[in-house]
Every structure is written in structure tokens, then in C-alpha cells.
Amino acid sequence: MAPRMNPIRRLGLVACLAATLGLGTPAASAAPPLDWFDTHGPTAQVTVAIDLLRQAADHGLDPADYHAQALADAASQQAQSGHWNDEARRVVFDAALTAAMQRYLSDLYAGRVTPAQVRARFAPRPQGPLDAATLLRHALASGRLAETAQDLARQLPMAQPLQAALRQYRSLAGQPGWQTPLPVPARGKLVAGDGYPALAELERRLTAVGDLQARPAPPQVDDILIAAVRRFQLRHGLEPDGVVGRLTLAQLNVTPAQRARQIALTMERLRWTPLLQGRRMIVVNVPEFMLRAYTVEDGRVDVQLEMKIIVGKALDTRTPLFDEDMRYIEFSPYWNVPRSIALQETLPKLREEPGYFAQQGFEFVTPDRRVVEVLSDAAIEAVQQGQWRIRQRPGPHNALGAIKFIFPNNDNIYLHHTPAPRLFARQRRDFSHGCIRVEAPVALARFVLQDDPRWNHERIEEAMNAGVSRTIRLRETLPVLIAYSTVVVKHGQVYFHDDLYGHDRLLDEALRARSAALARTRTPLSGP
After folding, report:
1. Helix, strand or coil for residue 140?
2. pLDDT, tens digit, for every residue of 396-409?
3. Do residue 379 and residue 408 come from a single domain?
4. How much of the chain, in percent, has pLDDT values that exceed 70?
5. What's the gap between Cα 78 and its chain centre?
6. Are residues 17 and 83 in the same domain?
7. Domain contains 206
8. Dihedral of alpha carbons 6, 8, 10, 13, sign
9. Angstrom distance (rounded) from CA 106 to CA 84
10. Is the same domain home to 208 and 96?
């Protein structure tokens, strides 16, 4: 072995490398070297570490972010040349591999961007950030580097099925066929009995993604193909009518590589979405238009309630992403019309159709909380000037329906009933001004109040229909999470949903910018 390097020179090399590679602060990188080497050269943990970094894509990460190929090449070159005896080279390699592994472990645990970077206002993890340096040191000392990484990977919700789906779609990305879009049918859609020049390719795609069993392609669309199309439509947020129309064709033309990226983005988002932060939780998944209420015990999730929801319009009134604690339920609520809605919709309607005021049960409220139940030009002008406000009394026309679930937040977003349940029959349900309408309000109230035996089904319905506003405080607050996931695993199947608000696109841009910044810091790892 070569003589040991002067400690001062060692620290200088490591600090310089850290600054050049962007591998962390010099102080952190200048810590004593880890156990990557012994008296014989690199330990077996070097190979384990490099293999983990090279396989980072299995977890939706980018091996290039961890210099995986450069580290593998450097290790191979040093082994072949016998330069491991040069301590300067070992110092450089040690620092690079240590920083890469710390970044990898941290990314597995908490993701590569923060929620705030992609318009999500989630509270920090109660357990705090990962001490990747200490974790790595312990993993090396115990010889459990691979197990430590696997333990972090398993913490991802739906980890195994998402990894399996990622492998499936990445394997399909190399198959021929998807490079050319399926042509538009002659009549604009395919129904039973139709011929289609690309019928064999349509069947091949449905077979590849698991919605159709392999078979010789029929001469025309038959019942078996229609059933497969329905399965595909259900998994892609479409009306399952079995007809290959414009929307279905668009989903069929999404390439496996694009689907793999969608899965990887979902895995990234799930790393920092606080899905398991309470004993009981209510989670809204915006692009899926679904709400789930579940209990968590020993890390196991028991979904007790699932229902359709209506969320904010994608064009201009998007539902924000955040988490807060539900504290109140209001039965037979008043609806205090937001000023923006009053100015843009309610007041113009009242000017055009004065009878709308009484029909909808509106009233005015003055600054001293006096209620005015008579429509007048002066009252309308007072609302227009921001002096008065307008609200809707409890009743059958109330926009909030018969119940409101309150989790105080800066956006004044809440869950509520609706007098227009017909909209729940739509596949795409972004119709609200931002608040979230729920399909089964009584069932949701039962879940929220299940620890209070006084509130049974009958009493909840009675309070909802009383026509008199009543607010109750929950005995125990209940976490509510408004989340965003365009890929969902249900009963072992993968479901894809449109990027309703463009949040996946924003996340993709943030990750690509991060990777580009890391790429600009790279330098050869061959040593000084």
C-alpha cells in the first residue's frame, strides 16, 4: 500500500471535490472516509453501492443523478490499472461514492424536489428529514447497504405494484408499433362489426397492457375486443362504452415510455405526499375525482369509505393541494358567497332576474351583522363595493347542500354536499369553484363521527334536513389531505388518469432541471 496521505491534504482534496461536483457542503464531505476500502482495496460494499445506483431507475429515479456510470467506469479502470494503491485516487472515489449514496438514500426517502416547488403545501414530516450520512455509515458498518436501501424503498405507498408496473411499461417501450399512432377510424369511431386496417396493432397493444388475451386478430371488431376496450377505458378514466372514439384512441396512442415516466412521477410525488400521517385520514385524489377515508394501524391501510367527488375547474378554479385537520361539521349550512363569485356570477344574475334572489334563498349581511332579506339596487351596490356580503340560507337550493366539512385553511376550501348530484355520473368531474363536493355525505359524516356514538345515521340525516344551521366541534381532529396522483393501483391493476391541472408536467420540468444542474457539476472521477 502507498503511504498514507497527509490529513490536511486529504481534507483539501475532498473539499475541492465537493465544491466541483456539487456533492454537498465541504464540511460534510470532509468527514473521515467511510469503509469503502480495506488493506486489500475496495470492499464488496463498493460493488453493492454501484449496483444500487445503476438500478435506481427501478425506483423511478435517474441513475445519472448519482454519477452511476462514471463511478462504475472509475471502479473498473482503477481495478484494471492497479491504481487503488494511490491514496489520492481513493480519496476522490471515496468522496464521490459517499456523496452519491447519501443523495440516493435521501431521494428514496423524501424525493428529489420539495412539495412547494410543485404547488403543494404539505406539512413537513413529523419525523423530520433523513440523516443520510449517519444512515449510510451504519449500513456500511453492519454490511446491510442493500437492505437499508430496500427498507427505504418499501416505505413508498404501493411500492411493489408501482415498481412492477414501471418494469412492465419500460419493457414495452422497446417494442415496435407504438412509434406510429393508430389511425383515426374511417367513421371517427370503432364499434362492433367494423373493419379497421390497424386492427392487429390495436389488439397487440391491448394484449401488451393486459386488457386482452393474445389471439389471432379477428377480421372485424367483435365482442371480445369490445370487452377489452372497456377494461382499457376503465383503467384510463374513460367512459367504459367499448367504443374506440377520439378520447380512447388518444389514450391508446400514449407510448409505454410516456406511461413509464408517468409512473416514475407518481412514485416521486408519493415520497413526500403525507398519506400515512394519522390514525384515521381522509384523502382526496384530484385527477381521479375520488375520496377515500381509511384507518392506519401498524402501517396497514384499511379503506373504509370510497366515493366520487367533484373538484375545481381545470381552466380557472383549480382545487389547491394541501393538508389540514378537520375540526368542525356544519349541518344545514349557510353559504357565504365568495366575493369573486358574487361579482362575476351572482350580482349579474340578480340584476337580470330579480326573482332569482327569493328563489335561491339569498339574503344580505351588513357589517354589523344585520340581515337584509329584501333585494334592492342599493343592496346590490353595497355588495359590489365590498361593504355588504351576500349569503344563501339553508335549504334545498343551497349550493353547499345539507352538510359542510370544515378544515380551516387559507383558501377557504372545504368538503360539502351538493343539490346537483347528477354531475357525479360524469367521468370527468371538474365543475366546482375549488371546493370539493362529495357523493355520499351521510357516509362521510358517519366516518368522521364514528368515535361519537350519539351521531348515528338517523341523527345525521335529521340534522342535515333541519333547515337550521348547526356547527359541531369534532372530539378529535381528523387529517384531510388533498393530493394529486395520476397513477393509482387498485386490486392489483394500474389505473391512469389525465394530468388535470398540469402538476405532472410541472414536476417533470422540476426534475429535469435538477438533473441538468447535477449534470453540469460532473467531472472525471479518475483522481487528481
Report:
1. helix
2. 999 999 999 999 99
3. no
4. 92
5. 42
6. yes
7. yes
8. negative
9. 28
10. no
Residue 516, C-alpha cell as written in the block = 441538468
Specify if 65 maps to a domain: yes
Structural domains in the chain (count): 4
Cell of 23: 456533492
Alpha-carbon gap, residue 208 to 203, rounded angstroms:
9
Shared domain for 142 and 285, answered yes or no, is no
Cβ atoms within 10 Å, residue 465: 12
pLDDT tens digits, 306-332: 999 999 999 999 999 999 999 999 999
Alpha helices in 30-176 (DSSP H): 44-54, 68-81, 87-110, 132-142, 145-154, 159-172
Q: Tally the C-alpha atoms within 13 A of residue 374's C-alpha that lie toward its C-beta.
A: 3
Residue 327: name the closest of 453, 411, 455, 415 by CA: 415
Whether 496 is covered by a domain: the verdict is: no
User: Does residue 381 sit in the same domain as residue 317?
Assistant: no
The model's pTM is 0.91
Site of grid cell 371538474? 430
Describe the strand order of the beta sheet including 389-392 as a list of residue ranges.
Answer: 335-336, 389-392, 362-365, 371-372
pLDDT confidence of residue 12: 45
- Write the burial class of residue 190 (CB in 10 Å: 0-12 exposed, 13-18 middle, 19+ buried): buried
Picking from 448, 464, 483, the residue at the C-terminal end of a domain is 483
* Domain hosting residue 62, numbered range: 7-159
pLDDT in tens, 104-129: 999 999 999 999 999 999 988 888 89
Answer whether residue 82 shows pLDDT above 80. Answer: no
Closest by CA to 283, choosing from 298, 296, 299, is: 296
Instruction: Supply the DSSP symbol for 190.
Output: B
Residue 190 sits in a domain whose CATH number is 1.10.101.10
Burial of 498 (0-12, 13-18, 19+ CB in 10 A): middle
Report residue 78 as a C-alpha cell.
482503477
Rounded CA-CA distance 282/305 in Å is 9
- Domain of 303, CATH number, reads 2.40.440.10
Q: What is the 3-state secondary structure (H, E, C) of 50-80?
A: HHHHHCHHHHCCCHHHHCHHHHHHHHHHHHH
Shared domain check, 178 and 152: no
* 516 within domain boundaries: no
Percent helix, strand, coil in the chain (nearest 5)?
A: 45, 15, 40
Cell numbers describing residue 501: 391541472
Instruction: Say yes or no: 72 and 218 in one domain.
Output: no
> Which pLDDT belongs to residue 179?
84
Residues 218 and 151 occupy one common structural domain: no
